[in-house]
Structures are given as C-alpha cells and as structure tokens.
Amino acid sequence: MNAAALLTDGSVVEVRELGAQDVPALLELHRGLPVEDRYLRFFSTSPRQLEDFVEQMVSPDAPRHVVLGAFRENRLLGAASYVVVRETDFAEVALVVSHIEQAHGVGTLLLEHLASLARGRGVRRFTAEVLTINGRMLRVFTDLGLVTSIVPDGEVVHVELVLEPGDHYLDAVGDREARADVASLTHVLRPGSIAVAGAGRSASSVGHAVLSNLVRSSFTGDLYAVNPHAKSVAGVDCYASVSELPQAPELVVLCVPAKAVPAVADECGRRGARALVVISSGVDAEELLKAVRRHGMRLVGPNCLGVSTSAPAVRMNATFAAHSTLPGHIGLVTQSGGVAIGVQEELCRVGLGLSNLVSTGDKLDISSNDLLMWWENDQDTRIIALYLESFGNPRKFARVARRVATTKPVLAIRAATSEAGRRAAASHTASTATPAVTRDALFRQAGVIAVGSVPELTDTAMALSWQPLPAGRSVAVLGNAGGLGVLAADACVQQGLRMAVLADETRKALARLVPRTASVHNPVDTTAVVDEETFARCLDVIGADPAVDAVITVTVPTALGDPTGGVHGLDGKPVLAVRTGGTERLAGDVPCYAEPARAAAALARLVERADWLARPREFPRPGRIDLDAAKAIVAGEDGWLPPDEVVALLTAFGLPVLGGTLTTTAEHAVAAQQAYDAPVALKAVADDLLHKSKGGGVELGVADAAGVAEAFRAFRERFGDRLRGVFVQPMAARGRELLIGVVTDEKFGPLVVTGLGGVDTDLLDDRAAALAPLTTADADDLLHGFRTAGHVLAGTDEGAVRDVLLRVAELAGALPEVVELDINPLVLTENGCVVVDARVRVAPARHTDPFLRRLRTT
Prior knowledge:
This protein has 25 helices and 40 strands.
C-alpha cells in the first residue's frame, strides 16, 4: 500500500506499509516520545523487546502483522499496526505519533488507512489497550466514527472498534477530508504570493496573458514573473528562475514548454511552493505528479485555462481568458477551458459573476470533489456549477455532492461519459446501463441539477440567484398576449408542471381589473390595453391565490404600452418573466427570458430542487439478512450461478423467492413435480442460455409425470451437451410482472434498474434506474419512474415491492462479487410479491475503498 493524503493543516503526507528498512526510523520515532505518549502497550516494552517486536512486525515472514507509516519528506511522523490475534477476523491495533506532529490528524489518518487495509484482508474488529492517562488517544478512537466499545480496567482502557464503515463513519471521514481539503486549497484560491513561470514578453504568449490578467485584476499579494530573458514583463519584475525568487511563492502558474514542466515543478517544490497551476498541455503526467507528490504540493491541470478568485481580499485572475469575470457568488469548475469561457461570458451578460473559476484540465490532482468541499465552506459562494467530462471517483462525488446540495444548489452541464456500466453479457439490465443512465442517476440522487447547455445553466442560475423556491408545482401564467400565454402554459406542462386552477375569488378580482374581453382563467390574458400598474395589481392578485405556487409573466410591447414595468417579485413565491428579445434581470430581481420554454425549464429546475430538499435522505437497512451465508455462496465463484444457488443467495437477503429444485435427470425432475403435487414450470439450465423464454428453455403448467419427462427430453434434444440441468418450480400465482436488475461498475458501484417484466421486457425501452445504496425516496423513484409503472403497480402491494428493491440494493452493496443480477419476473399481487425467476453473475472482487482519504499518485 502506498498513498498520498492530506492532514488537517492541508499538508501532504505519504502513507505506506513499512518494511525492514524502516526499522531504525520506527525505533527513533518511539524513543523520542515521553512515557505518557506511548499510546498502546505494544510500544511500552524494554528497548530490546521493542527492537525485537518492531523487526518482527515488518518482517515479510509475518503476514499477520501489518504496519503503516506516515511520511513527510522521508521523515516518519507516525506509525500504526495491527496483529491478527485470532484465526479469522480479530486484530490488535497499536499507534504511535511523533509528539510535535500530534493534533494534525496523523493518528486518525493512519487508523483510517489501517482499517481500510484490514477490511480488505478479512479483519472485522480492532482491539486496543490505551493508558488511562492518555485522554488524547482515547479521543482519537472515539472520534474516528466507527462503532466503539470502551471498557476501563485499572491503568488501561480496553477499546474495541467494529470496522464496518457505516454512514456515521463515512460522515466523520468526509468532515475530516473537507477540513483538510479547504486548508490545502487555500494555497490555490487565496494565495498570498504568485509567480508566473514562462511569462513571455510577447503579448501573444500564454504566460504573458496570465501575468497581464493578474496585473489587471489587481492581485492583492506579491506577484513575480520568471523569465531568464527579461528584466520585467507587464510591469512585473522578472527573475531568471523560480530558485532565484526573493521568497517562496505560495502558488506558481506554469506556462513553460511541456517538456520543461516536470523539472520546473520540481524546482518549485524545492523552493517551497505550496501549489501549482499548470497551463501547459502535452505534459508527461507521471513525471509531473511525481514532482508534485515529492514536495507535498497541490496541482491544478495540466492543460487548463487557469484559476480565478473574485474575493476583494484576493482579486486573482490567473487565467488567459480574454475578459475578466464579474465578481459574484457562483463557483465554477470545468474540465474544458472553452466551456469555462462560455459560462463566464453568458453569466456576465445577465449580470452574474463568479466567486471562483477553476479549470481542472487533465485533473491530475485537484478535481470537482475537492472544489465541492471548498465551496461548501466558502461564504462567498452560493451556487456551484460543474462541467465534468469524466468522474475520477463518482461514489465519493455522490456522497460529497449530496451533502453540499443540502445547503447550496449544485448545477452540472451534461457531458459525455465513459462506457461505465456497460456489460458484454446480453442481459436486460446490462443493456439498460448506458453511461447517460448511470450519470443521470448519480446526479438525480445526489441533488445535482443537470442541464443540457450553457444557456440552460445561465437560465437556471438566474432563477436560483434571484427567486425563492416554490412550495409546489402549480403555475399561473399572466400575460398581455394570449398566444404567448398559451405557449407558456404548454411549456409548463411539458416540463412536468401543473397549471393552477384559480379560485373564484381570484377570477372575480381579476375581472374587476381587466377589460371584459380579457380571460381570467389560467393562463390569464389581460389583453394588450392594460398599463403596467394594472398588470402589477393582477400579478398581486394571482400571487395571493393559495393554489398558485409560482407565476410566469409573458409581456410584449405594443403601441398602447408595455406592462413589463409592472412585473415584480412576490413574497415567498417565484416570479419568472418572459419578454421576447433578450434575457435580462428586471427590477426587483426578476429573471426575464427570451421565450416561454426557457422560463418554464428554469422554473422546473426550481421545483426539482425544492422536491429534492424535501426528500428523506436516510438509507434504511433491511433486517433478516444472513450476510455470512450469502458471502459463502459467492466466494470463489466466477460466472452465472446455478439456479439453486441463486435461490439460496436471494433467500439469505430476505427476498421472497418462489424456490425450486435443480434436477439433472428426467426421473429427478418427475420426482420433484410429484413432491410439489401441483403443476410446475420447467426451466432449462444450459450454457449461454441467458433468456430462457426466447431460447425455448421454458415449459409452463406441466401437471403430470409424462409431461415432465417429455419436457426434459425436449430440452436435452434442443440444447444437447450445453444442458446442465432442469430447474423445476411450482407455478406462481398470476399477477403483474416487474423486472428488477443490478449491474455493477467498478467506479460507480451498483446500478439498480426497474421496468416492465416478463415476456414484455424487451417490447419497450422503459426503465428507471438508481445507484445503490437507496433511500426510500430512491426506491419510490424506481417504483414510479418508468412509463408503464402505473399499469404494472395498479392494485398491488407497493410496500412489498419497495422492500424488495431495498433488499436488492443491500445485496448489491454488500457483495461486490455480484456484478449482474436480473429478477424477471417479480410477480406482484395485492397481497405481496414473489421472485419467480432470477439470474446472478459473479466475479472475483477486488477490495476498493472509494471513501478512503487519499490523493492520486499515478
């Protein structure tokens, strides 16, 4: 194990397993501690015993011993170890941290990495013995977030940790990571000094453009230029190299030729720089990252536009964009420099600005996950906007975004996604799990508002910036042009909004204000003769109607006047305006759009956010699960499980399975039918037979021995040597049929899919999808999110189906070996549901920990 990670002060350390070569450093670390800081009894022995013990721990012949160390610039800051003390899953843990490095999070970081490593090797519990005088160490254990048992015993306290990473633990890890990230990103977004390496004298050079932008933005810190061929550039003093700068620059912007970047980055590290922004493209990524990690720096890029901060205390524009951005409250991170410029200019056109712009480019280090954590804690940022072409760690992104979105809107422009979720196997579920489906499920569940274009991002940001969220989705349209009002109403319905039914009192009040030829039914047409004062009074009347959650106004200028001046905000209800000819900001912070469809889409995004904020976000954990039995079934398997093992696996997770008997001879099949004493279904188990009904592998309603024998013989003739057996099941009760499936991607995790089941599965491309784990709201989305859901669920027990979905998601999350699962059909009745047929494909799982605090090293 070898990883880079952040401490709470933002500094970077290397965490790796120790070997025999590290024994002197480990002994020196321990000997430098006062007695009260020798935390655990492993390290409270005589010097000779200590040396023997340490050498034993790091010996390659001691696989039951694991020792991790945290290093900064090759200096050992702390070490943590575990020793397996039982044959199965129990280990004793020890920890020691340099006295001067305590309170920086070294011990907690080491324990997190040690616990993750232990889980991957089958250890389930840690035990430790801490001296009672060492309250600091006890706090390290209790604050870790794992389930902890503490039992005092004289001068020693016995501590036991359950290594299962539940939500409380992941929240604690996320909080620690956010604090560390914010500390490290301060050097990027709020630096006290900047140097531009490669600041060319030519105005056409990128380095010159970056330096000039920093000068024009009136950067508040110390600014230097690095160019061996000039005395000054853009009025800034030049130095021949980074090493010759009068002080260590906190941030260095590299605009040097690609081949020179790794060497210059290494020079920056030696000089004491804390962060780099690499504008250059075509860089040797591996060598650059080595230099960055060697010196504990953070990195934006390479191949990026740069970074900017509009806060008055910083005023930094370290980009080569042609125009500076307006100061504002929107944080923007994008992989594309072109998109960054487009968003910046669109926002500027409507009077919105950025708090920060970060163009991540190839994102070797700093990514959207880091920026989300920064903006979560940044008071200058109220809205977050993302453009992502790929996900480095989508499961961590989902968890961070879900947390951030509870307090600040997060917008994302949909972009191409890699072929995550695709599977070569031709199953119903796998064929559904396209990149777009997986990405959209992630955004929806995490509360990220997905938009399709830069203008749509701007439209949504206007509404979120200037208007409150609606209490519901009932909309009233008020206009002075009947045709445009109808178009606005149509656009609202297309966006899933509802046209409000105005109260009688509202219509009577409107009738007293407008001409007799006007329409006082929604959409309200005041006619072209009303003035702006009358229009404003009509708006107040409509806004006071309890049935109205939001209002869209539609106005056009005529020879008789322009009522747009009467458009104003309402107390607690959003108002969005439409006026042909342009997008702008009206008086009273009312966003105005050039056409009704754009206003309706922006309002729908407000409703989407309000709905998401009202959703329950807890992850329920179903009971009656035999996880040990389930793990035993999938252990060592590779491929599609036989049907009897599928039944056992689903039963272990409490799923209502019809069951059956796997038979290998006609006589065995006949005996199974007679034991059920009822008509049966016979299903062929044959190589490469994934869809049994299509492939002629199903016979239903066979009621006697002769029929069973004949069906078995027919299967043998049809499939020959491919036939492995025949699964015999009692016939299920008739009911509606649902498909529930799972396909697991190494990065995104398990995707749960629902849709029309049975033989109709392939007739319609009609699916709903959500990533595990599921909240109850996610499960309800799966229940109702496909077009035929109303037909499938009519008159059935939805609670029973919801329980199945939650159990399937729990199975997928608990067993990474399950890479594909199809339940088809799940038969639904008014009294419950039953799994009639299911297939499960497994593969050896590699232990991954997407929530472990670590930085990219390769």
